[in-house]
Amino acid sequence: MIAGLMERLRALLFPRRWSSDLDEEMREHLGRETARRIREGLDPEAARREAALAFGGVEKWKEAARDESGARLMGDVSADLRFAVRSLGRNPGFTAAAVGVLAVAIGASTAAFTVVNAVLLRALPYEHPERLVRLFEQNSPTNRWNISTADVQGIRERQRSFDAWGGVSVTEAALSGEGAPEQIVMTRIGAGVFDALGVSAEAGRAVTTADEPAGAPPVVLLSHALATRRFGSPLAALGRSVALDGVTRSVVGVLPTGALDLGGRPAEAWIPLQLAPATRRGPFWMGGIGRLKPGVDLAAARRDLAAVSEGMSGLYADWHDNTARLTPYPLRQTIVGSAEGRLDLFAGAVLLVLLVAIANVATLMLVRASARRPEIAMRITLGATRIRLARLVIAESTVLMAVTVLIAAPLAALGLRFLGSVAPGLPRSAEISLGWESWLFLAAVALSSGALVSLSPVAAVLSSPGRSGMTDTRRAGTTRRAQAVRGTLVAAEFALALPLLLGASLLLNSFLRLTRVDPGFDPSTSLGITIALPSGRYGEVPARQEFFRRALAQARQVPGVLAAGLATEMPPDAGGNDNNFNLVDHPVPAGQSEPTSPWSYVSDGYFEALSIPLVEGRFFTPMDSSAGPPVAVVSLSWQAKYFPGEHALGHELIEGGCYTCPHTTIVGVVGDVKFQGLAGGGDGVYVPLSQSGARTVHLFVKTAAAPAGFVKPMTDALHGLDPDLPLAGEAMSDHLKDALADPGRWTAVLIAFGAAALVLAVMGVFGLLSYVVRQQRREIGVRLALGADPGRVARMVVWRGMRTAGIGIAAGLLLSVMETKWLGSLLYDVTAHDPLTVAVATLVLLAAAVVACLLPGLKAARIRPIEAIAAE
Predict the structure, then answer these.
(1) In what helix (H) or strand (E) does residue 133 lie, and over which residues does it extend?
(2) Which of 84, 188, 257, 540 could be a cystine partner for 395, CB 3.0 to 4.6 Å?
């Protein structure tokens, strides 16, 4: 045994020397055998010939000797690979199809893994990220909202669970100073957030507690990108001044790239969170980020914060909800949010396409191996072992996968760029890049795919009948086992294709229904312009109100403007500006939470500008000011929800928990407007803009011509009032398209995957039947010669293919049940098991299978018996 191992090692390390020794040994044996034959009376030439034949031929003897000693480990591997390259080169159609299908599938799966890994799998880029949490107020398992200034004070005084924590609020701000004015995303942030996340400045310093008191010097931190864009480099930005909303601030630090926007709160500038003492429990306008102390888990933190909430009960007259509790959630979970369901669906779709591709190529490989059975039988007859032939198949798979990997790698990069364009706004998008995990995944998938696609042909070679395989080349590869394996692979393609096709159909159905949703306003005649007033020049509410009054008057003087109005919210995605309220004549029971509703502050002319219909009562007028009695307009859905079977007109409500304030009277009911997305409800409350101290509003105008042509005249008119205002405007029809863009992109992605799976499945059944017809050409010719009906022959072929496809589709229907988990939250007005959609998807797949089966069937019916028999 040891001698055998040593001989194998010598053959591996010194193949040329070993081969030379083998040749020398062979010559010695042949010489002895030749001498023996001469002694028996043969002439030298005949003796040499007989000696060679005694050893089975020189080359065969050498082959056998090498096989016995295992010397094919290196030299023969090289020979196998060269043979595989030549063999694949002689079949360019097969090679291109196999490489193309697998390269696209592996490249797409690598891109998908890269996204899923960065967003869902990889830990947050902070020390001990499992201890990071975000804080909410919550009064039921499904109802949570931001925290307030009062919550911050209560947590600061009573919490025992956090090493560090702080509040954070994202807003927009007008940036001016050095360089052109621009609108940027700005975050007000507590110093404790930097301590909780462990983030330090790339240059300068971070926000500290010394920056938080009112009256502290105004400072700002910039992102690396903004500092470079405005000042050339982070170091050059330090000590410079910028104006944010008209307030001049000194740059004291620059944050590094890749800090995950400080806990998932994207921004380009950060200023200290300066809070005045709370006088009421609301409003709830900021998030909270904290780091748990070592040994404190989420359950313990929940109990601690529940005690904090109970300690705050009764401290504020505007709050009567005794069920609300401060609640911590894992920071990673809150960052990922709803993207997890979409990415799970996307990853599942890519996996299904990859499996379909592997099954398709495995079918091609098996068909090719079956077609080579006469060749294999000949090789076995000439002395080749089955292990030797199996290695040739494995070598072909290896070469095939090597070429596939070379093509799949750049396709993965292209796929990642494609995902960035179809799915913008993904959380943690800055972390998405092809790293070592991606390349390791690509290699693992390629190895696994290569093993799977070579499994069936290797098994076919190992089970080859050998010499008997040459006796009937007409039926080579048509053994019952080979037929069953090929049929199983094709059925698997259909089984995997149906869930993809069904998912794409459901999303398409949902998207089409979403496009038909009435947003509640007329987007074809209206224009929206966002106005953000800098707090430095418009710090007082009267100054803002005066500017808005002048802006409205200026807008209404632009030729072609039919109506104009202002509002704090822009439908259909208003951003969740909700307010709590109570009904005077239908109050909630004591101690229970008050209802909330989308809340919009609007001016007179707003409803006319967006063509929102009046159902009863009246619109707002210039007389509805802060000096007059509080009034409100509500939507039809709001009326039906809170006054079922009644009219809301004339009823009173209490706003924001202010029970000492005058009651608000409902003076009008209008049509529903979507403020919570097109898939959301239509309930909403409108109150006069004069009751709000908002600095950012939206100007809506109704135009006599195409709204897009009024963007410049309107912005010019507003710049006449303040030339430094950053303004952004667009036609409401374009804004509505933007609201549909995200579900439209995801729908398009899944449709592409479903179409790819459909094409691969059709290719599989078409290739299988074409091969069967080609192999049974003589048999079919004999049947036709004996009087068989060509139509019956065609139906026989079609039935064979449809039986395989039908089995796969039945299995696919069972697999489709699993889609409910991923699709449920992404669908609008359609269920994941909608019978009509399921039926349509199934029929489409069946129709495609019929077409794929019909072509080989017609080809079989057109076979000429004489030519078929003569060819054999």
Answers:
(1) strand 132-140
(2) 84
| Alpha carbons 14 and 10: distance in angstroms, whole number | 6
The secondary structure of residue 268, as a DSSP letter, is S
Name the 3-class secondary structure at 421. helix
Beta bridge partners of 573: 676
Report how far apart the first and last C-alpha atoms of the chain are (Å, whole number).
51
pLDDT at 469: 46
Query: Hunting for tokens 């020398």 — which residue is that?
Result: 24
CA 717 to chain CA mean position, Å: 42
Distance CA(248)–CA(536), nearest Å, equals: 8
Residue 731: what are its φ and ψ, rounded to 5°? -65, 145
Centroid of chain to Cα 833:
22
Q: Are 826 and 507 in contact (CB under 8 A)?
A: yes
Q: Count how many Cα atoms sit within 13 Å of the Cα of residue 76 in the half-sphere of its side chain.
A: 19
- Are 319 and 281 in contact, with CB atoms under 8 Å apart? yes
DSSP letter (8 states) at residue 120: I
For tokens 């079977």, name the residue: 645
Beta bridge partners of 579: 597
Give kind and range of the element (H or E) at residue 9: helix 2-13
Please return the burial class of 759, using the count of CB atoms within 10 Å of its CB with bins 0-12, 13-18 and 19+.
middle
With contact defined as beta carbons under 8 Å apart, do 844 and 836 qualify? no
Q: Which residues pair with 177 in a beta bridge?
A: 242
CA atoms of 46 and 44, how far apart (whole Å): 6
The pLDDT value given to residue 136: 92
Tell me which amino acid residue 471 is: T
Whole-prediction pTM? 0.71
Assess contact for 257 and 128: CB atoms under 8 A.
Answer: no
State the Cα–Cα distance between residues 804 and 856, nearest whole angstrom. 15
Rounded Cα distance between 610 and 368, Å, is 66
Shortest CA distance to 404 belongs to which of 111, 95, 90, 112?
95
DSSP state of 709: G
Under a CB-based contact definition with an 8 Å cutoff, are residues 212 and 156 in contact? no
In whole angstroms, give the CA distance from residue 792 to residue 858.
10
**Which residue stretches of the chain have pLDDT < 50?**
1-5, 8-9, 12-13, 56, 58-74, 467-478
Contacts of 565 (CB under 8 A, 6+ apart): 552, 602, 603, 604, 605, 606, 607, 608, 609, 610, 699, 700
Beta carbons of 748 and 422 less than 8 angstroms apart: yes
By CB atoms closer than 10 A (0-12, 13-18, 19+), residue 870 is: exposed
How long, in residues, is the chain? 872
Reading phi first (left if > 0) and then psi (alpha if -120 to 50, else beta), residue 162 is in beta
* Among 553, 482, 395, 500, residue whose Cα is nearest residue 759: 500
Give residue 3's pLDDT: 46
326, 303 Cβ separation under 8 angstroms: no
Within 10 angstroms of residue 539's Cβ, the number of other Cβ atoms is 14
User: Do the bridges between strand 219-223 and strand 247-255 make them parallel or antiparallel, or are there none, so unpaired?
Assistant: parallel
Per the DSSP assignment, residues forming a β-bridge with 172 are: 185
Question: Where are the strands (E) in 178-317, listed by range?
Answer: 182-189, 203-204, 219-223, 241-244, 247-255, 269-272, 284-292
> Which residues is 292 bridged to in the sheet?
162
Tell how strand 132-140 and strand 325-330 pair up. antiparallel
Q: In angstroms, rounded to a whole number, what is the distance separating the alpha carbons of residues 106 and 370?
A: 26
